[in-house]
Amino acid sequence: MPRAPGLSVRWRLTLSYAGFLVAAGALFSVVLLLLLRYAPTGRLVPARPGGFAPDRHDLLAVAVPLCLLMIGFLAVVGLTGGWLLAGRVLRPLELLGAAVRTAGQGWLWNRVRMPGRDDEFRRLADGFDRMLDRLESTFEEQRRFTANASHELRTPHAVMKTMLQVARADPAGRDVDELLRRLAETNDRAIDTLEALLQLSRVERTDGVAGPRPCDLALIMEESLEAQVPPDRVRVETSTDSATVLGDRAQLGALADNLLRNALVHNVSGGTVWIVTGRDPLGRSFVSVENTGPDVPPDLVPRLTEPFVRGTGRTRSPGVGEAPGSGLGLAIVAAVVGAHGADLDVRPRPGGGLRVVVRFPVRSVLQAP
């Protein structure tokens, strides 16, 4: 939005300093002249023979020019000193302004890193640096998301195109039934990825939870388990105590589905999935899902909640299928957790696998009827 030109902050501070000094000098002069008006009109001291003895008019004649000279001197001192002091005070803002202009051009790597002791300007600069850290991290995540999403959506279409080209090149040797089966599997994979993206978008688009209702985490996890039949080679053990929270039923269902699907998909033959719901000693309702599997690199764990990030060496068990997961399961979980103001704890299990725990704030916990 265009703005009319105005004085800089430095000039305004300078004029404020000078104006204060001039006002103080003028007030002093006014008080002095008022006092002199009450002096006797006659001579103030006895005059010696041939000497001079001042009266009130003589004092006023001398005081008025001196007061005007003093006011002018204070104005010069105020402007000069105010300009220097304002420059010194505003120097941290100049550093901050330079960093803001650099960030506005897209260079988010620049930081203020203002030296000196703690004060309002340093706290402002430190807060700006933290904001740039968050922005840089967010933009980096968005770049990775765009690249990974493009790859994930391109791969199944490229595979289908290759299969069709091979079948077209060898009409006599192609197996139509096998071709249709593989095309259907690849198409299902693309549809699953798109559905997961839409689900993630719906959750992230909401601002918190609108119209929260009582929801039992134990019941939600049981319904999700019934809908997702575990493979024969993966065992599921449950310990579900009632844990009722205020939340969005659809979003909590998505959380449960993705927690369970992630634990089933990224498992090993003969592995186990443990599901626990209840309340911790602090009174918070929680749901915990653990699974067996290969070791997960600790440095990769913080990024597992980003879209399309998969753990190295984590694959589906033979009983689940050969196609990899969409890579959006924990990202959807993190989005639901953020919408409900809950805490998400993701960490590797000793011996392999992953442990994911979602803890809801006490304010959203309801006592079971």
UniProtKB/TrEMBL annotation:
<dbReference type="Pfam" id="PF02518">
    <property type="entry name" value="HATPase_c"/>
</dbReference>
<keyword id="KW-1133">Transmembrane helix</keyword>
<dbReference type="InterPro" id="IPR036097">
    <property type="entry name" value="HisK_dim/P_sf"/>
</dbReference>
<feature type="domain" description="Histidine kinase">
    <location>
        <begin position="148"/>
        <end position="364"/>
    </location>
</feature>
<dbReference type="InterPro" id="IPR036890">
    <property type="entry name" value="HATPase_C_sf"/>
</dbReference>
<protein>
    <recommendedName>
        <fullName>histidine kinase</fullName>
        <ecNumber>2.7.13.3</ecNumber>
    </recommendedName>
</protein>
<keyword id="KW-0808">Transferase</keyword>
<keyword id="KW-0472">Membrane</keyword>
<keyword id="KW-0812">Transmembrane</keyword>
<keyword id="KW-0597">Phosphoprotein</keyword>
<feature type="transmembrane region" description="Helical">
    <location>
        <begin position="20"/>
        <end position="39"/>
    </location>
</feature>
<dbReference type="InterPro" id="IPR003661">
    <property type="entry name" value="HisK_dim/P_dom"/>
</dbReference>
<keyword id="KW-0902">Two-component regulatory system</keyword>
<dbReference type="Pfam" id="PF00672">
    <property type="entry name" value="HAMP"/>
</dbReference>
<feature type="domain" description="HAMP">
    <location>
        <begin position="87"/>
        <end position="140"/>
    </location>
</feature>
<dbReference type="InterPro" id="IPR003660">
    <property type="entry name" value="HAMP_dom"/>
</dbReference>
<dbReference type="InterPro" id="IPR004358">
    <property type="entry name" value="Sig_transdc_His_kin-like_C"/>
</dbReference>
<dbReference type="Pfam" id="PF00512">
    <property type="entry name" value="HisKA"/>
</dbReference>
<dbReference type="InterPro" id="IPR005467">
    <property type="entry name" value="His_kinase_dom"/>
</dbReference>
<dbReference type="InterPro" id="IPR050428">
    <property type="entry name" value="TCS_sensor_his_kinase"/>
</dbReference>
<dbReference type="InterPro" id="IPR003594">
    <property type="entry name" value="HATPase_dom"/>
</dbReference>
<keyword id="KW-0418">Kinase</keyword>
<dbReference type="GO" id="GO:0016301">
    <property type="term" value="F:kinase activity"/>
</dbReference>
<feature type="transmembrane region" description="Helical">
    <location>
        <begin position="59"/>
        <end position="86"/>
    </location>
</feature>
